[in-house]
Amino acid sequence: MDRLQKEEHEMFTQQIGYQSVPEILCISVCPFILLFIRDTVVTYFGLNFNRLLRNLLFDFFCVVCPVIFLLTIAADHAIQIVILFGVLAFSLCFVKLSRRSLTGFTKLDFVQSRDKATTVLLLSCLMIMLIDLPICPRRFAKNSTYGLGLMDVGTGLFLASSSIAGSKALFNLSEGTKFWYTVKRIVLPSLILGLVRFLSVSFLGYQSVVEEYGVHWNFFVTFALVRLASALICTPCIGKLSKTARTIVCFITGLSFCILSHAIHIRVKPLIQTNAEGLLSLPGYLSIYFLCLGCYHACRQLEHSRITASSKAFYFTATHTFLVLTSGSILYQLGMANISRRFASPGYVLFILFMLCFCTSFSWLLRVLSYSISQGHCQPSALSLVVSSQGMFYFLVCNLVTGLVNFVYNTVRFVPSDTFSSLFSLLTGILHEIEASKRQRPTSSV
């Protein structure tokens, strides 16, 4: 990447706007609504996709294309469009809604891990590929210090989703194998990816925001260390020492002195100060990880309890409603100005918990309605199955593709969003002129 292109890209990435909480909520639940509409259409028309490619193409046009449209051209009207999608979804419920009870709904899958993983990965991958294009509003980007954007929320929700996936190693494996399973399958590959990303960025001179994670740090390192720390804390001999870890680290290093410094040359050395953001954000990300893991474990115990499905639904709804109202009230009292993804502040952790409970409740409601319509006979979405099973792979591919495109092309000079409206007006005017000329030809010949 040449110097002029790098400077132009840095100036473009410094443009960060403000995104409201209702807009974040609407965009976050939009994939859930689209998946519900997809399932309802498949059930109503009795569609049966025998081939995976047909199922994926149908899901692409039903889910992926509307989300791309929402994140780019229609971003200024995101709330109104999501409300229309919601009205359409609940209107479809009355077309073919069964009044049967939920007795056959024995496995409620309360946390809806597949739907949540699909939503988080879909929004994360699309935002990674679109955020460097002028067609995508800059208010969706990560904030430098304080504030919230869609990508700020996506970072926390990605770790929250990984906690559900990581529950396999914590609940289903023995004490002697869970630690090494996590290290071999997750920690080491993520550390290697983080090292490769740092070396490639340094070697190619690729633009990187120091205030995001640090000089040598990146999201893959954070992800690896969070999973490593979770495995260590769950080890009996190490878990007793975890309570004082953050206090000792902050006291010894004294990173708060230089954490707000935007001057890169001040934090050239030592190594700890150059990566202060990544180190100080680890306790917050660990809190997100274990809070979500605790919620999943509670839902898991409720699901396997010997009570009726209606009682399970009541307890689940009451618990998540309480968490949403409590976390939302505390956030309202604290204010949104102190939320920082950069530091993984307590306000940020609380907001991620609020988002997780809200999305889980919303997903569960749509899943119950979908079951009432299809009675469990709807063909599952191929997009959900593929994305949720190989999420980290697609996340890595999106990062590689985005980096390659930004390195080869100057994406800042791509067509901005307002050009689409002018292009549409131009095409409409041309069509009107052609139609008018066709009408005038018979009169002129006479």
Quick rundown:
Its EC number is 2.3.-.-. This protein is 71% helix and 0% strand. By secondary structure, it is an all-alpha fold.
Structure description:
This protein is an all-alpha fold and 446 residues long. It has two domains: 1-99 and 110-141 and 381-437, no CATH class; 143-357, no CATH class. It has helices at residues 3-13, 21-45, 52-71, 78-93, 113-130, 150-171, 175-204, 210-213, 219-233, 236-239, 245-253, 271-274, 276-303, 309-334, 346-374, 382-389, 391-408, 417-445. Mean pLDDT is 73; it is low at 101-106, 237-267 and 442-446. It is found in: Endoplasmic reticulum membrane; Membrane. The chain crosses the membrane at residues 20-37, 57-75, 81-98, 119-140, 186-205, 217-238, 245-264, 284-302, 314-335, 347-370, 382-408. Keywords: Acyltransferase, Endoplasmic reticulum, GPI-anchor biosynthesis, Membrane, Transferase, Transmembrane, Transmembrane helix. A acetyltransferase, which acetylates the inositol ring of phosphatidylinositol during biosynthesis of GPI-anchor. It is a multi-pass membrane protein.
